[in-house]
From TrEMBL:
Protein name: D-aminoacyl-tRNA deacylase
EC id: 3.1.1.96, 3.1.1.-
GO function term, MF aspect, one: D-aminoacyl-tRNA deacylase activity
Subunit structure: Homodimer.
Keyword hit for Heme: no
Length: 150
């Protein structure tokens, strides 16, 4: 799994003109799932995300986690994170998991994030045409690949 974690002041996802999810302070997370991903990837990423120290403490140092600031998560599925651009100008998405594999993993990731964060999270809709609005705080953007844990 690949995630792009963006620290937000506010964010929302709109589908067919209606807001599906919105948050204030927290993380907008774009997630790309590949066929080889498993519950181990989900567990590791979820723990990593909720404990990332990207929020400022009283001294202005990024020393507080999402849990510490009681922040929220807006999770968006994005198969294009697995784009290969090695050949030509049309990206290949061959590494991205097919929906029959990706959707159950996406749903498990939602459940794990909610469990680790201790509250419900906001989401987009798998496979939908989504419009994501974000005020990126910092800006702070972190890319994490569960296949590169070392």
């Amino acid at each position: 799994m690949i995630v792009v974690v963006q620290k937000s002041l506010e964010a929302s996802v709109t589908i067919d003109g209606s807001v599906k999810g919105s948050i204030g302070v927290g993380f907008v997370i774009l997630v790309g799932i590949e066929a080889e991903d498993s519950q181990d990837d989900i567990d590791w990423l979820s723990r990593k995300i909720v404990n990332l120290r990207l929020f400022e403490d009283e001294a202005g140092v990024m020393n507080l986690s999402l849990i510490d600031v009681e922040g929220d998560i807006l999770l968006i599925s994005q198969f294009t994170l697995h784009a290969s651009t090695k050949k030509g100008n049309r990206p290949s998405y061959i590494k991205a998991a097919r929906p029959e594999i990706a959707i159950p993993l996406y749903e498990k990731f939602i459940a794990q994030l909610e469990s680790d964060l201790g509250k419900p999270i906001q989401t987009g809709e798998f496979g939908a045409d989504m419009k994501v609005a974000l005020v990126n705080d910092g800006p702070v953007t972190i890319i994490i690949d569960s296949k590169n844990k070392q």
